[in-house]
Amino acid sequence: MNGADNIVLKAKSLTELYLKVLGLILYDIEYKRENTGMVLRIFIDKPAESGKVNIKDCQEVSNVLSTVFEEQNLIEGHYNLEVSSPGLDRVLKMEKDFIRFAGFKANIYFNGLVNGKNNLTGLLKGVKAGNVLLEVKGVIVEFPVSSVKKGKLIFDQ
Fold first, then answer.
1. Which of 27, 91, 125, 127 could staple 45 via S-S, CB 3.0–4.6 A?
2. Domains of the chain
3. Which residue has the higher pLDDT, 49 or 120?
4. DSSP per residue over the chain, as a string?
5. What is the pLDDT of residues 91-123, one digit of tens each?
């Protein structure tokens, strides 16, 4: 495991602890070099029944985590901490994502081929025994969550 992976693991552990207290959940976390330098980006979400993340939530989490990360000396040197919601163009990749967004249209990209294709578009129907259920042109296609490279929700205009 490299240094960046280690930072992400430590940040994830600390973040999840504090988000739980605030009634929020960790959606994703990344630590990478960008034009402005190193960025620790934390995506937060609310449980489906609790509404949407707002700016106040992001500010509160940013204030708490910047203090915690500094006290824990999580990252040596300068970095930028960004806290935001995953937004409408969120990436679906974990079982809980496919459960939460059942009933929504999505485009799913695969690590390999499923039914001879590297991606499929359809209506998410949920998860059964570790397999995503996707209705494509009236037919339910089933594939393991582990075969998903990424999924994106589609919002028709």
1. 27
2. 3-84 (3.30.300.70), 91-153 (2.30.30.100)
3. 120
4. --HHHHHHHHHHHHHHHHHHHHT-EEEEEEEEEETTEEEEEEEEE--GGG----HHHHHHHHHHHHHHHHHTT-SSS--EEEEE---TTPEE-SHHHHHHTTTSEEEEEEEEEETTEEEEEEEEEEEETTEEEEEETTEEEEEEGGGEEEEEE----
5. 888 888 899 889 999 999 999 888 889 999 999
